[in-house]
Amino acid sequence: MPLTRRYRCLDDDGGILFNETTWKTHILTASAAIVYETLVEQGGGDAITMDEATQVLRDALDLDPDTPDIAQLLAMLTTLGVIRR
Amino acid sequence: MSAPSLRVRECDLGEIKQRCRAGQLHIDYGAALVRVRSPLDPFARTLQRTYGAFRLPHSAQTECADYHVEVIRPRGPRAFIRPQSQFRIDGIQPFDPFPLTNALPLFEWGVNWCFGQRANQYILLHAGVLAKGERAIIMAAPPGSGKSTLAAAMMLRGFRLLSDEFGVLRPETGDLVAMLKPVALKNQSVEVIRAFSEEAVIGPLFTGTRKGDVAHLAPDDASADAIHHPARPALVIFPSFEAGAALASHRLPGKDAFAHLAFNSFNYHLLGATGFEAVADVVAACPAYQMRYSDLDAAIRHIEMLLDDAEAVAGAQTTEDDG
Amino acid sequence: MTLRRSPVLRQLKMTAKANIPPNAQRSSPMPAPVHITHRSLNTRLPMPAGHHLLPLLSDPAHARQMQLADWDSTLRLARQARVLGMLAHRLQAHESRWRAIPERVRGHLQAAINYGAYRAHLVRMELRDLERALPADLPVILLKGAAYLLQELPLAQGRAPNDVDLLVRRADLDRAEAALKTAGWQMATQSAYDERYYREWSHELPPLRYPNHPLEVDLHHTIAPVTSRTRADDALLFADPRPLPGSRYRVLAPLDQIIHAVIHLFQDSELDGELRGLVDIDALLRTHLRTDGDWQALIERAHHHQASHLLWYALRYCCDWLQTPMPEDLTLDDLAPPTIARAALDWIFTRIGPPRLPETRPTLAQRLATQAGLVRYHRRRMPPALLARHLLHKGWVAVTPSNRQSAQ
């Protein structure tokens, strides 16, 4: 499988993400970038399940996965293959 | 290397006209070499004025042109009632004809069209580019924000102009390539720039074009002589002109600068990962600022300061890395 | 005007032994292939494409012989013929050859490669969306560009498809159309006549497009118009589709892909500026046929699909213009069309098939050939009575635009 996404961290300013399947670019706020980096690290190269993802958000980042913002971010990360369907 | 060739303004007007008629006038913009054919003598005269600083390319270079374009008078009965000019590339006519008198703005837009459509070996940012030495400033802003006026003023204060419309980014090297064209000044900008510097060489005023009144500022000799020297991106500025406003600037987060540069680019959507990496490299290497201004000289001094700061930071980082 | 001997007098010898100079045999995956060098055929190549474009398409190593000035018109001709991206990929595949090409030229080639990649991406995205819309149990075969792309054929590289072509069984056509329309694809508004023409006499539906999508979708139920002289054998086509690993789509069997490309070019196009169609066929032949047996099978397949004459034309131009390697002892005598038809097609295709430089006005012969290509196109697709009705209707609509409204 070729790389399916590219990510660039822009210092403390957030990050940018390119989906190599859809060619869509996503702009991540600083907090979204932290979530992304944490989940990717957790998966160690593989996609993680939604349960694992919400667990990590609660335990490691002290975030509520049920707020609309976070839910939207998780949905996006699912389409990007960070979280397994 | 052979000796530098003549500048367009040093040539006899008769020769420029003759070359135009024969389709043997070549203009080297840096990122593109255009072969022009036009039987319209007044057009040749305006070309000579606005492209005066450009050097005629050596014949070895002109063996292969990037675009073969024509500015001609359309045929047919209408041509007698209202004389018109028509732009063509490879037999394609991308726009409706213009009035005959507006052949130069038509040609300028035509060349922009060709370049914007075809030069997909580059990332084409919608930005003006100026440089001090090797250090390039990318000035990106929507039309109407005074980007062209500021670019023109910067050139007249000694910056090298690489481009007024296209930030031509070469993905293999991360360099910016010149696409040097006369700066299209619109409406009141024409008088602003005329008053700004006695050295401004401005072509005839074309009234009632698609974009209002337009006149073209001729690039200076230094910019024309450097078209084949790329520059490194060093600073990104998003200027906005606001009459009477005090000068103000603030640092823009990298992701916002990325979004502005990428999503306003002519062909970012078309280049996939190549475009993503190239624009990300620019944003990673350059601080980006939003700048509001009303006074041109104050804006230019401020940009010089930001450029020096950016260099100091970049220098410090390099030293750290070395240590 | 091209310099060539009278096509009527010239018998094509596909047993091309006479044309092979010594040492023309090169290493190749094909058993006993025939390579023909440029020199042997140069006088027959149509100009100006024959100077460098056709030699480059035959063998990218030709680039080594080119000067900067040669590229000027070659780039323009390649762009005109829509083969610049394909050519660019072939040139880039070889590092030292690529480096030897002047930088200005490489810029154009790289731009065409990037553009081709973008179009390929658009096709992939459209197929992804179509996959969601089409019922999972409905067999869908990809044709042409989309098929080459998903098979990852060398031919697909740099080739910029204009649309997406899908083939379904006639019995599934209504269901496929309904599914796409439910999912949001729309048919461009047509006159009632056009719509009926497509549905009754054509081999595809009017093009469908999802709002704001850059590509159109053509839904076919067979590969040649139902009224045309050469009708492929549908049963044969649908009997042998090939799965694509990891995809819901299928493609035609390799031989059918070739036959389809042949029918598409020599029956279903007006021949004008259609060099790319020939480049497609050349690449398919080079990719899909490996043994003498494959070539024999292709000839048999052409007979089954009633496309033997068309295949003869294809092989003949591939051989002459693109030097497609063919087995030495291949005999095509029983494919050959009648001499007069051959002469006619020769006269047309050599004049209008290859690209022209845009500023050169077409010669009288070229304009006549364009007309002839058009007439031939219609005649092959429709029986005379239907053609007469079709042209009469088209002519009528053209002179009385108000009629269009009443027809809707």
How would you describe this protein?
The complex is a heterotrimer of chains A (85), B (323) and C (408). With 85 residues, chain A is of the alpha+beta class. Chain A has one domain (5-79). In chain A, 45% of the residues lie in helices and 16% in strands. Chain A starts with a strand and ends in a 6-residue tail after the last helix. Chain B is of the alpha+beta class and 323 residues long. Chain B has 2 domains: 8-118, no CATH class; 123-322. Chain B has helices spanning 13-22, 41-50, 78-81, 103-118, 147-156, 189-196, 221-225, 254-263, 268-285, 296-322; strands at 25-28, 33-37, 67-72, 84-89, 98-99, 123-132, 135-140, 160-163, 166-170, 175-177, 183-186, 206-209, 212-217, 232-241, 248-251, 288-293. In chain B, strands 6, 7, 8, 9, 10, 14, 15 and 16 form an 8-stranded mixed β-sheet that branches. In chain B, α1 (13-22) crosses α2, α5 (147-156) packs parallel to α6 and α8 packs antiparallel against α9. The longest helix of chain B is centred in the last third of the chain and has 27 residues, at 296-322. Chain B starts with 12 loop residues before the first helix and ends with a helix. Chain C is an alpha/beta fold and 408 residues long. Chain C has 18 helices and 9 strands. Chain C has helices at residues 38-41, 53-58, 68-80, 84-92, 95-100, 103-133, 144-150, 173-183, 192-201, 234-239, 254-266, 275-288, 292-304, 308-322, 339-352, 364-381, 384-399, 402-407, and strands at residues 33-34, 141-143, 163-167, 186-187, 208-209, 216-220, 242-243, 250-251, 326-327. A 5-stranded mixed β-sheet of chain C has the order 6-3-2-8-7. In chain C, strands 1-9 form a two-stranded antiparallel ribbon. In chain C, β7 and β8 form a beta hairpin. Classes of the chains: A alpha+beta (85), B alpha+beta (323), C alpha/beta (408). The interface between B and C is medium-sized, with 20 and 25 residues.
